[in-house]
Amino acid sequence: MTALALETKSLCKTFGALAVASDINFKLERGARHALIGPNGAGKTSFVNLVTGVLAPTSGQILLGGEDITSLTRAQRVKRGLVRTFQISALFKKLTVLENVTLAIAEREGVANDLLRPAGHHRALIEEAYDLLVPLGLATEALRPVTELAYGRQRMIEIAMALALKPKVLLLDEPAAGVPPIETGAIIDTIEKLPADIAVLFIEHDMELVFRVAQRITVLVQGAVLVEGPPAQIADDPKVREVYLGESKH
Amino acid sequence: MSETLSITISILFHGLAMAMVLYLISVGLSVTMGLMGFVNLAHGAFAMAGGYALVLLMKQQNWPFGLALIAAIVICVVLSLILERLLYRRLYGGDELDQVLMTMGLIFASVGAATWLFGPVSQSLEPPAVLRGQINFMGRDFPTYRSFLILCGALLVTALWLGLERTRFGAQIRASVDNLRMAQTLGINTSRLFTIAFGLGSGLAALGGGLGADFLNVGPNYALEYLVYFLIVVAVGGLGSIRGPFVAALIVGVSDTAFKYLAPQYGAFFIYAITMAILLWRPRGLFGQSA
Amino acid sequence: MTDSVSPGSPVDRKAVIDAFARRHRFKWYEALPWVLAAGCYFIFDGYHALGAQIFATILFALSLDLLIGFAGIVTLGHAAFFGVGAYAAGIMAANGWQEPLSQLVVAAAAASVVGFASGMIVLRTAGLTLLMQTLVVAALLQELANKWSSVTGGSDGLLGMKIDPIFGVFRFDLFGHTAYVYCLLVLFIGWLIARNIVYSPFGRSLTGIRENTNRMHAIGAPVDQRKIVIYTISAALAGLSGALIAQTTALVGLNTLALSKSGELIIMLVIGGVGQLYGAFIGVPLYMIAQDRFSQIDPIFWYFWIGLFMIFVVVFARGGVLGVCGRFLDRWRSR
Prior knowledge:
- The complex is a heterotrimer of chains A (250), B (291) and C (335).
- Chain A has 250 residues and is α/β, with parallel strands linked by helices.
- Chain A has helices at 44-52, 74-79, 97-108, 123-133, 151-164, 181-192, 207-213, 231-236, 238-249, and strands at 6-15, 18-28, 33-37, 59-64, 67-68, 82-84, 169-173, 199-203, 216-221, 224-229.
- Chain A has a domain at 6-94 and 166-249: P-loop containing nucleotide triphosphate hydrolases (Rossmann fold), CATH 3.40.50.300.
- Chain A contains nine helices and ten strands.
- Chain A has a six-stranded mixed β-sheet with strand order 6-7-8-3-9-10, sandwiched between helices. Chain A has a four-stranded antiparallel β-sheet with strand order 2-1-4-5, with helices on one face.
- Chain A starts with 5 loop residues before the first strand and ends with a helix.
- In chain B, helix 1 (3-36) crosses helix 10, helix 2 runs antiparallel to helix 3 and helix 6 crosses helix 8.
- Chain B has twelve helices and two strands.
- A two-stranded antiparallel ribbon of chain B has the order 1-2.
- By secondary structure, chain C is mainly alpha-helical.
- Chain C has a domain at 26-258.
- Chain C has 15 helices and no strands.
- Chains in contact: A-C, B-C.
- At the A-C interface, helix 2, helix 3 and helix 4 of A face helix 1, helix 8, helix 9, helix 10 and helix 11 of C.
């Protein structure tokens, strides 16, 4: 079993004349900590949308653990262990923290189609959800509606919900976006502590986070892969400096 | 000449006349829905108000047709602008259910008010003497009033399209329907734009309701009874589209006339079936923007 | 397990999970509607027929609440299912099948078939297109009932319905004594079903769909399938309600399928409060009793005032009676 956790082969997506993904050949190793970076509009979020099935590719293939998932629905991909978070928190705002996570676990276990028994009777799920909140420091707020929590805390719930689905591959779309600097530390800690067997791909603008966590980095520019390699190599690459790092120094 | 041809021409003629009325009433609805995403179910109430104003000014005040028509439009525009300021404005960008409720409330209020003011019986339009009878065109007799309706409609539609294509205001409308945020960042005063579009749309609805009084009977239940037609035109045409509703109005007008003439035992059944089929094929309508 | 100093201590853990897991338990106030309804049987002896109508309509509004309040599906054509149920029961009763309980079963089944079939089409869309399509489905059925007059009686309505006594014992009487109890019992069963669904994992996932459809996709929920299931169940409950009205009034007309019927229903539900399971129990009686009183004074004004009232509710009293009371309570508590 040496199949890659996630792989795309010649992935293309065009909207009319605009190419948001052109011939992307991407490989995510098992247990990897891989960062996807690039300037605004490089097509990073489009890439996540393609991989997770929000967008249908114009051409190309997406393989999850060696299996072709290109034509599967969003839900089917999640069932196979491909899970994402959102750039802008997309939670069930009026529901409690515990309920948010419980909903995810109920879907994972296929319990959510049960319309005969009360949700409270599936106690094991609720316990699991609660225990997931504890290490993330969310337990004290378990019964509060999400909307009452600070944004940094909401980002943690995003991660908690993704973990609740027991992912094999986890796509984090700018996990620290919009979070005040004081709170980013907690998020970085959480990402560093993610179970080692999960392959993590994260999109991020915060270079501190990228270079602290990532083992490999892919740089995306205008929908195409510019360069890929370990952090040291990326930091020294003149092309990257020109396009990306150089840009951010101004 | 064969009977089939004569029937076909007759269906096309009356269908076209009906399409003009449906288009005049619905185009404003399409623009306001496309602009603000506002679900204005009460749009038909403005058409009804226009119909009542025209018929009653002529009948009870003996106003001439043209003057009464202009007065009807003015009354409706003023009424709609007051309501826009007072009520609609509060719900822009709000909850869809709230919009449905508020405009449903307006419909019910319009039903009650019209019954109270004008009684439960529907009013019929009596065109001026010039527009009564038949006119002969290429060896064939056509009802004068409906010919006038088609001509009027064609002129208005042309004026409307030219206005939207050529004027600054038209360009602003088209830009805002296309992308509201972008339009706002470009410095277009979308709030004022919407007020004007709302008033204009209501004015056109009043005109359609007035002129079309011999198709769509002006009675207290007007806004409820014909809502499904207006919504079909807008949804089949495509939200926010200016020309889409015209094609949709043609489809509805001609096929409604055809089915009612050829297969009256089925009534409007086929119109609804066709609508469902079109929307099954293209959920965003014929000319709707894709996601 | 974590150590006892951390916020997630075992004691807290049990308390929090218990609080969450016991939400579905019956609260004392949930008995109120039923106690009241039983009491009203003895107090308002002359109003049993109206009471029966109210109970049947509460069931109708409850079925709509499952769609609007829980799944977030805003529809303008819910009368379609009410009408299908009413016509199903009525046509049976007018053609020799006079046993009421089997009529209820057939009515619910017919409505759920229509709900499932139309749901497959209309639920692919959202927003205005969905509103329009639900409206067109109802209009289509109304036109069908109008034109297929050999079976439905067309615009004259369906006449000549005959209903047997329930269990062969309880005859439907002119004063509505039987109807009152009968409708109340069917409503009770319908309420148990709805309540059970709302608190089930399926019901919770519907709330998730209402709150954030994209997130539901992202946690692997088959969103479209769930919507179709609840649409079908809701249609069945609406069909039951239509059958109750048909049986207890022995009359079915085109208005059972009309847009005004759907519109009025939304208004009743909103007056009570959407998405709280009890809005229907408050809004429907308020609306129908007011209508009954008002109509005797001036039937024309009813629509006018209810329209104005609705505008007022939307602009000033969002959330209906339950919403306003809830906010009032919150303010009082926070003092």
